[in-house]
Amino acid sequence: MPQGVGAGDDAAVVPFPPASRLVVSSDRIPEDLLARRLGLMSAAEFGQYLVAVSVSDIAAMGAKPLGTLLTLGLTSDFPVDYLRELVRGAVAAGRTWGSPVLGGDTSSSSAISLSSSAFGHLPADRALTRSGARSGDILAVSGAVGGFGAALAYFTAQSEGAAPQLPSKSAEELRARLVRPTPRVDLGPALLEREWCTSCMDITDGLGQSLTELSEASQIGFDIDVEALPLHPLTWEVSKAIGVDPYEIAFGIGLDLELLVTFKADRLREAESVGLTAFGSARAGFTQVRAGGRPAQAGVPGRGWEHFGGDASDFVARAHRPETS
Amino acid sequence: MPQGVGAGDDAAVVPFPPASRLVVSSDRIPEDLLARRLGLMSAAEFGQYLVAVSVSDIAAMGAKPLGTLLTLGLTSDFPVDYLRELVRGAVAAGRTWGSPVLGGDTSSSSAISLSSSAFGHLPADRALTRSGARSGDILAVSGAVGGFGAALAYFTAQSEGAAPQLPSKSAEELRARLVRPTPRVDLGPALLEREWCTSCMDITDGLGQSLTELSEASQIGFDIDVEALPLHPLTWEVSKAIGVDPYEIAFGIGLDLELLVTFKADRLREAESVGLTAFGSARAGFTQVRAGGRPAQAGVPGRGWEHFGGDASDFVARAHRPETS
């Protein structure tokens, strides 16, 4: 089939660094993303978003990206101008993030379907994984979280007539959080070079969901101080405007693409120097949430915006494992 | 997002051979494949098919496969048993073809969407492409063609009450052609090792479409002798049963996954020894079709079963090219 369309061959060919391992990931983007439904996202931004989610997975492993494929199923009435802009946005984003769009597959479909695959490379002997966190490690995040969730909460409430109009500067910044998430393509590989980073993943379904997954993969709990968590300033503004707890927003929702990280306890200064902010530590047993010195009232906030069916993923995993072990 | 589900990390990691280049390809499979609509394809066969089309692209470049990702968008009512069987079929096929399923992305969707990405490796200095055919080269195919097309024509006619029932052995073999196409994972890399193979692609949309694409990529025409073309025996049987020209079937339709190849004219014996059958040669100017010594009545048969929108692919290609040149 017409793959590697950039090259006109069956597949695209990419130089590969010596003594490296291949890292691959794929993502499907719901065609009815809230940002699109609400008319907040341009076609080019949708293309950028499509590349961002796959490339972010590569970065979260500590890998350097090499390239991206787009796989688009389009209805016969899909506007050609929209497609052209979407591809333009994807191509520009891929170039910016060092993961150029190399081709893919565009086919007609009874329903719109948009997905991307990204691939990158890792050294032969190292990777950032979700399973390396150990009791005593410090828990940190790579930037402010909650911006995406605040935007989602605000624009949803607005569309329902349940939110006051924020100043246009705030509204535009919220829109940017929602439609232009940015993968941490430099930080992931930089953390890989540090021996002290013990686990890493990207935040794609809310901080709460990410903490749960990191906890399960590493078989540890966390001691979390929500007051130390760097919330995006607009999370506070939206929280006040619509009357929702800001931590509920940050934990419960959103694709911030920031990295959730653990590292060795004696490396706090180095971690801060690369932009990580500590907000807890790994511990044996269950996760506990504090607000400063006090137990937090709500316990662990929501597990995130679960647009992914856990059951289906489990089936892929289960059906797969016996074949490769 | 939950990629690399086999491993539980953001992405899957694969060892990569030294001094190699990465080859990547992706394909979306229409959820309403005729074989599925007619109830001819099991869930496991659908999974196998999903892997086959991507892996075939890797083989057509002369590359050795390394692995496959599945990207599945599933409706909430998608039967769990069907999904389990689909994944089982994909995993088994990936293992058979040396392209193990390493994970992917399974998400809920308003419509079913199934795609796969495959990746493989090539030496640093060689690849089989579509652009290398030169005037005087011999044109050949890796096996019998038309089996898929014959099956599609037969079962379509049958569903419309326009075909007699063939013997059950023939019908079962036709079903196998339709639902279990097999990528030439050994032959592709074997041809790469031969210096005499000048171009290669897999046949996924009928031989006519493939010839057109090879012709355009290499900027040459072909002198084709249809009487030398190895047709799958069932093409003749179906041709008689439904009253359609067998060459129309082979040229006009079908995903045989055989390799369409050109090679240097003095290597006919070596080419035959690896299973290639010559049926023409490359020439300057337009393609001409003969039947033995006589001009063929119909000229070049149909351009194939175009389930891919040429326009959309072109947009990806055009939007992409300026960024990488």
| Most residues in contact: chain pair | A-B, 102 and 102 residues
Tell me, rounded to a whole number, the average pLDDT of chain A.
87
Structural class of chain A, please? alpha+beta
Please provide the ordered H/E string of secondary-structure elements of chain A. Answer: EEHHEHEEEHHHEHEHHEHEEEH
DSSP, total strands of chain A: 12
- For the biggest β-sheet of chain A, the strand order reads 7-9-6-10-8-11-12
The helix fraction of chain A, in percent, is 25-40%
Question: What separation lies between the terminal Cα atoms of chain A?
Answer: 32 Å
How many helical elements of chain A?
11
Share of β-strand residues of chain A: 15-25%
Low-pLDDT segments, ≥5 res of chain A: 1-6, 300-325
Oligomer: homodimer
The largest β sheet of chain A comes out as: 7 strands, mixed
Instruction: Compute the CA-based radius of gyration of chain A.
Output: 20 Å
Note the overall shape of chain A. flat
Q: In words, what does this structure look like?
A:
The first copy, chain A, is of the alpha+beta class and 325 residues long. Chain A is built from eleven helices and twelve strands. In chain A, strands 7-9-6-10-8-11-12 form a seven-stranded mixed beta sheet, with helices on both faces. In chain A, strands 2-5-3-4 form a four-stranded mixed beta sheet. In chain A, β11 and β12 form a beta hairpin. At the A-B interface, β1, β2, α2, β3 and α3 of A face β1, β2, α2, β3 and α3 of B.
